[in-house]
TrEMBL record:
Top-rank lineage group of the source organism: Bacteria
Keywords per UniProt: Membrane, Transmembrane, Transmembrane helix
Record's protein name: Peptidoglycan/LPS O-acetylase OafA/YrhL
Cellular component, GO, one term: membrane
Organism encoding this protein: Hoyosella altamirensis
A Pfam family assignment: Acyl_transf_3
Domain Acyltransferase intervals: 25-360
Organism placement in taxonomy: Bacteria, Bacillati, Actinomycetota, Actinomycetes, Mycobacteriales
Length: 422
């Protein structure tokens, strides 16, 4: 009997830097995103966001938020992508929630409390403003984005994504093993569908805009999630394209140029037509993917000269504090310089805001953020140690036929050691 054998070529995938572990350039990219958000806010408050070409450019630096969201999508989804292919266990929800809360809330609460108590423009805030800001529900509560904290709408969206991520993981749980290749198409189709979110007729209270809710920005997170899937299971063709020297920079510049054009609507705080909103969001998703892909899909060991430099890592380390504090500091920069808002002077206002934000962010990192994370790591280490340490359990045995000594039954105590369960 002749047996026909069919040769199978092994599934050879290229090695990439972002398949696991810490990427220093992502830390630097986070810092660049924080500075981009600061730049657009300074430009707006100094009156430089206008309908001119340069004014539109300053205004569209608000797409720096897309970088933040894509980074979150990548870093938080990668463990789920690895688990779907059997490279690691699925993330534990309790640990995930603890780490997200400790990463976000301590420094955030400090900013909210100090701004609402000390910033003159925010002192008159009522209980509803306090509650919405303390619970990160500003985008669902009317008129609660107060001076000094207006940028926190994006953190409210980010928190919604944190809460939704475990549910998304459950919905895609069946796409594992040989079906894991379907994960990218499903995520991509969901992202494309979310571009129509502003067309959905939803009645909201005055001062609440449903286009500021998570579904409207899902494609920005999805850009990072798709990149995480590609980093864990790299598609050779995609990796080759990403590694071509100018492909991703051209894609990023093209997306930014389209976002600056009238296709994405006017700059500033104006209501966008659903079509303009979809174009802007699409451009942000492309921008986020195009800027992060060359880092995540680079050859292992590749180090970005600027983003992974000591200065880039420093700004990235302080990026969360920069984001939290820069709007309140911007409000203070005007009286420091003796100039009113919306009257120009963008360069000096930007310089003061950058210097003070870096200083305050460094203090926030040293006194609030890092101690909070260190405390959590210590608590988890102690919990793990207690779970692994043998515990002493005293088991009392009473002899069936007690021997009387002074009218009392003699009781023997056996000491049994067993390993405590975690």
């Amino acid at each position: 009997m002749n047996v026909k054998q069919q040769d199978r070529s092994p599934d050879i995938r290229p090695a990439v830097a972002g398949s696991a572990g810490f990427l220093p350039a992502f830390e630097g990219m986070r810092g660049a995103a924080a500075l981009g958000v600061m730049l657009t806010h300074v430009a707006f408050q100094t009156g430089e966001v206008t309908d001119t070409v340069l004014g539109r450019v300053w205004g569209r630096f608000d797409l720096s938020v897309a970088l933040f969201f894509a980074l979150s999508g990548y870093l938080l989804w990668r463990p789920h992508s690895r688990a779907a292919r059997g490279f690691s266990d699925p993330p534990r929800i309790a640990r995930y929630v603890r780490h997200r809360l400790v990463r976000i809330m301590p420094a955030y609460l400090v900013v909210v409390i100090l701004v609402l108590l000390l910033l003159p423009e925010a002192r008159a805030s009522n209980a509803q403003v306090w509650l919405a800001n303390l619970t990160l529900t500003q985008v669902y509560t009317p008129f609660t984005l107060v001076e000094g904290l207006t940028q926190m709408w994006s953190l409210s969206v980010e928190m919604a994504f944190y809460l939704a991520l475990p549910l998304i993981a459950v919905l895609l749980a069946r796409l594992r093993g040989r079906y894991a290749g379907w994960r990218i198409p499903v995520i991509l189709l969901t992202a494309v569908a979310s571009l129509a979110w502003k067309y959905v007729p939803i009645e909201t209270a005055a001062g609440v805009h449903h286009d500021n809710w998570l579904p409207g920005y899902l494609s920005w997170f999805a850009a990072g999630m798709i990149l995480a899937e590609l980093a864990v299971a790299p598609a050779p063709a995609v990796v080759r394209i990403v590694r071509v020297r100018f492909v991703m920079p051209i894609a990023a510049l093209t997306a930014f140029a389209v976002s600056v054009s009238p296709l994405a609507g006017p700059p500033g705080l104006v209501e966008l037509h659903p079509r303009e909103y979809a174009v802007k969001i699409f451009c942000g998703a492309v921008l986020g993917f195009a800027l992060l892909a060359p880092i995540a899909l680079a050859e292992p060991g590749h180090r970005h000269r600027i983003l992974a430099s000591p200065a880039g890592l420093m700004v990235g380390r302080w990026s969360y504090g920069i984001f939290l504090w820069h709007v309140a500091i911007l409000m203070v920069a005007f009286p420091i310089l003796g100039v009113p808002a919306f009257s120009g002077y963008m360069i000096p206002v930007l310089a003061v805001t950058v210097v003070l934000s870096l200083a305050v962010a460094s203090v926030s990192y040293a006194l609030v953020e890092e101690p909070s994370r260190r405390a959590l790591r210590g608590w988890e280490a102690r919990k793990k140690e207690l779970g692994e340490r043998p515990s002493v359990v005293h088991t009392v045995h009473v002899l069936p036929e007690p021997r009387l000594h002074g009218g009392k039954a003699a009781i023997t105590t056996a000491v049994t050691a067993k390993k405590a369960s975690s």
